[in-house]
């Protein structure tokens, strides 16, 4: 199982139990995000940061959250007001550099 030999930014190898727990928390993140429409990161990020460094937990949360949002958007594509969505997406892209600067 060399695939699961993941290391932290400090070079410390993660234990398989930590990896499996983080995977379970990501399922919880997705479940809460789909059922409530928000709050996946709010419920799971504090728990994930107990096991992983913030520099690993944040991108993981963003990737899972983005995948969940894309799936939810696909499911509701017929009911979406795309003109309003375009404005929100545009301002989201303007905020990306601010977030990257804040995390660096």
Automatic annotation (TrEMBL):
Coiled coil: none
Keywords from the named record: Cell inner membrane, Cell membrane, Membrane, Transmembrane, Transmembrane helix
Mode of membrane association: Multi-pass membrane protein
Main subcellular location of this protein, as a coarse class: membrane
Entries under Pfam families matching the protein: TauE
Residue spans crossing the bilayer: 20-44, 56-76, 82-103
A single cellular component GO annotation: plasma membrane
Subcellular location as annotated: Cell inner membrane; Membrane
Similarity remark: Belongs to the 4-toluene sulfonate uptake permease (TSUP) (TC 2.A.102) family.
Protein name: Probable membrane transporter protein
